[in-house]
Amino acid sequence: MDNDTFDSLPEDELTDEERSILDAFDAADLDAAADTEEVAPFLPAAEAERVPDEDMQAIFVEEVAADCITLEQILGRRAVAERSTEDAAQGQIIQRIAHKLKGTCGAMHCTALAALALHTETLAKLIEQNAVAPQIGWQALDRSLHALEVTLEDFAASGQESPTFLATFEAECHSLGIDLHASLPALQTLPARELLAALPFMRVDLQRFDELLQHTERLATLGMALMEAQAGLESAFQELRAAEDRLRRLEIRLTNHLTLKGQRQDARQEDNEERSTSSLVDRILSEATRRTGRLVPRRAIFQARPEQSRETIDWDELEMDRFKEESMLALSFSEAIADVSIAASQLRIAFTQLTRLLREQQAQVIAVRDGSLLLSLTPLDMLLKRIEREMARENRNRLYPIPCEVTGETTEIDQEMVEQFTPILLQLIRACLATYVPLPSGETSVPPRMWLHVRAVGSAVLIEVGFSMDVAGGAFEEVVAGIRALDGAIEPRRNAQGGISYHLRLPRSRGTVHAVILRERGHTFAVPLSQVQHAMLAASARGRDKPLPLPDSPASPAAPVIALHELLALPAEPTGAAREAAAPAAIELVLAPDGHEESAPALPRIMVDEVIGDAALIAKPLPAHLQRPGIAGAAIDGANNVLLLLDVPELLRQRDRIHAARQRGEQSLPPAPAEPRPLTALIADDSVSIRQSLYHSLTHEGYKVFDARDGIQALELLQLHVPDALILDVEMPNLNGYDVLSMMRSYPELAGVKIVMLTSRFTDKHQARAKELGAHAYLTKPCDPETLLATLKRILTV
Amino acid sequence: MDADSSSLFIADAAYVQKLAQLSDEEFWRDAQTLARQEPPLVAAREYLECELSQHRCLLPMVALSEVCLPPRQYSRLPALPWWMRGLATWHSEVIGVVDLDAYLSAQAARSSSSEGMLLVALHNAIPIGLHVCAIGQTRAVGPEVAAGAAQDKDAAAWVAPARAALVSGTLGDAVILDLPALLAAVMGAIISTSLPERPLAPTQIEAAPHG
Question: Would you say the pTM of this structure is higher than 0.80?
Answer without folding.
Answer: no
